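Here comes a specimen:
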Amino acid sequence: MLPLEIIGEKMDPESLYEAVNFILSFQSENGGLAVWERAGASLPLEWLNPVEFLDDLVVEHSYIECTATTIQAFVLFKKLYPNHKKKEVENFITEAVKYIEEEQTADGSWYGNWGICFLYGTAFALGGLAAAGKTYNNCLAIRRAVEFLLNSQSDDGGWGESFLSCPNKAISIEPKKCTPLI
């Protein structure tokens, strides 16, 4: 969609079709998308994890970030190539949206695995839901996320989250005021 002088030669549609077909094959039974392979191995295999300080390394899991960005990519793909695996792409998006909605935590956030952590995951989830046509008016998950964001906003109008959110798997908001280092 960008000019050739910015992106160079356009990709052959057949290559895009192959990429879409490959990604379609990776959707897990829960509707989410993992990184290396379909999620679904037995969770007790995690007991074999040799790294004490990192959870969830042995078994592949579905991730909000991977799922949400794939929804965004597939929505754009549908606009550009509406006839390639139309039903499969639409089903993928539908199931991915269900996964995102089901993974929302009680406080309205989502856990992000690739960054710190709840604000990050929530941003990805909202991007995926919005790309799929969800809005504040037609989606309870978005309304709950807006409430979460409003409740976690700092006094200065921004958002910040402690790195402790990740290991504790519970949101830890940065202190409201920092003491200058100098």
User: Anything to note?
Assistant: The chain has seven helices and no strands. Residues 175-181 have pLDDT under 50 and may be disordered. The longest helix spans residues 86-103. The CA atoms of residues 125 and 152 lie 17 Å apart.
